Backbone:
């Protein structure tokens, strides 16, 4: 049986074993995961003989929903050890919602997040200079972040400074920020003089608007990291106008860690090989080079993931990969062709500019294009361009809004098709 395709560099997996067995590096990680988390042995017992690809393919993919339903405790033989570890800070936790209806608790060993972040930096030509040396960073995180990794409680500015990083969030909803709150955030940004600015793209675009309106420049910024959500070229342009620095697309998730890194909008993302094995699974007929991803974490002690279905879709490109976004945020025209947020970006008129947008399907052939901008655009040109993109017989209505609310998770969808039955 032919092995599945992986996004990792070929030398990371190494040569396959004899007679169709798995490469040693992958099999060693799988057996390590089985030894650490009893959930996997209960789902699919392993034999002692060398693993073959046929056996690997039989291992059921792990979903977010399954983690929520089984509970994070199912990853551990004795959860009281974890409870004691949380008390003395050997472990930490975070709650994330993602695509599930209920929050998911993620347990991490102390230092895991920092270590895999450093590996992500090492994998990026732009961020590599910051890996392993002290630097200042400001973070504007999504409202759903709820652990000591994103401490934006109502503490005074010096008490939100951790290992060179300032977490700017205090409000639970960035669109409810008062002007006084934006004053505070911009002043803290100036006071920190960060080399790196990191955040959810919509939030950073709004921060760019706040800084621009106040005539503020932060020349210390040498790199901008777009993470937590899918970025639009509109976000990137507005951010670059206020903070002119190279932009990095850093993709991952709370539960799996950082998985891909690349220069924003260059379609050159690559797997962070030391963090995970990333399997490229076939997705839909008629979409060559477009894949689901199944993630197997590397070197993880607490809650390691094996063939974890993230719910995200990637596309192969000549330079690497493009992260298309969540499966639910992709649209298929009646002829089967794919539309992603990147296609919406490309369809927008050249003179169009906004801080944020969302293209939402309201009926079988009706869509609403909501956008946040300082002035009203040419709606006729917008509607005609987007109607052509979405397919024959489709009507798009454009509306300028003061704000576009995020989902309950605090995240945003640039493209929102109607939910379809599986």
Residues:
């Amino acid at each position: 049986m032919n092995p599945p395709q992986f996004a990792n560099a070929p030398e990371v997996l190494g040569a396959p074993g004899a007679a169709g067995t798995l490469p040693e590096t992958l099999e060693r990680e799988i057996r390590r995961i089985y030894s650490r988390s009893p959930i996997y042995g209960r789902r699919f017992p392993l034999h002692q003989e060398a693993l073959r690809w046929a056996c690997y393919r039989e291992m059921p993919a792990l979903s977010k929903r399954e983690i929520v339903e089984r509970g994070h405790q199912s990853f551990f033989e004795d959860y009281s050890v974890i409870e004691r570890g949380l008390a003395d800070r050997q472990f930490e936790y975070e709650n994330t919602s993602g695509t599930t209806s209920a929050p998911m608790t993620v347990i991490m060993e102390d230092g895991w997040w920092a270590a895999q972040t450093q590996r992500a930096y090492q994998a990026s030509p732009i961020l590599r200079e910051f890996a392993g040396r002290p630097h200042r960073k400001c973070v504007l995180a999504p409202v759903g972040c709820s652990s000591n990794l994103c401490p934006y409680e109502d503490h005074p500015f010096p008490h939100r400074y951790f290992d060179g990083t300032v977490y700017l969030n205090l409000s639970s909803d960035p669109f409810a920020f008062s002007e006084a709150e934006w004053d505070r955030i911009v002043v803290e940004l100036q006071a920190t003089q960060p080399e790196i600015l990191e955040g959810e793209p919509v939030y950073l675009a709004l921060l760019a608007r706040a800084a621009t309106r106040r005539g503020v420049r932060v020349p210390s910024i040498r790199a901008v990291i777009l993470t937590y959500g899918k970025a639009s070229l509109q976000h990137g342009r507005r951010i670059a106008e206020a903070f002119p620095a190279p932009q990095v697309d850093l993709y991952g998730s709370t539960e799996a860690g950082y998985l891909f890194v690349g220069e924003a909008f260059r379609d050159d993302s690559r797997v962070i090989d030391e963090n995970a094995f990333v399997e490229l699974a076939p997705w839909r007929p008629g979409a060559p080079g477009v894949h689901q991803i199944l993630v197997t974490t590397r070197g993880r002690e607490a809650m390691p993931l094996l063939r974890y279905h993230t719910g995200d879709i990637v596309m192969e490109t000549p330079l690497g990969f493009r992260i298309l976004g969540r499966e639910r945020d992709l649209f298929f025209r009646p002829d089967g062709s794919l539309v992603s947020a990147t296609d919406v970006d490309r369809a927008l008129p050249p003179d169009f500019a906004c801080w944020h947008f969302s293209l939402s399907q309201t009926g079988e052939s009706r869509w609403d294009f909501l956008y946040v901008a300082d002035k009203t655009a040419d709606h006729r040109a917008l509607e005609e361009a987007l109607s052509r993109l979405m397919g024959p017989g489709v009507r798009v209505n454009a509306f300028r809004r003061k704000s576009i609310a995020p989902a309950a998770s605090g995240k945003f969808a640039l493209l929102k098709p109607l939910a379809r039955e599986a």
In short: The longest helix spans residues 179-192. The radius of gyration is 22 Å.
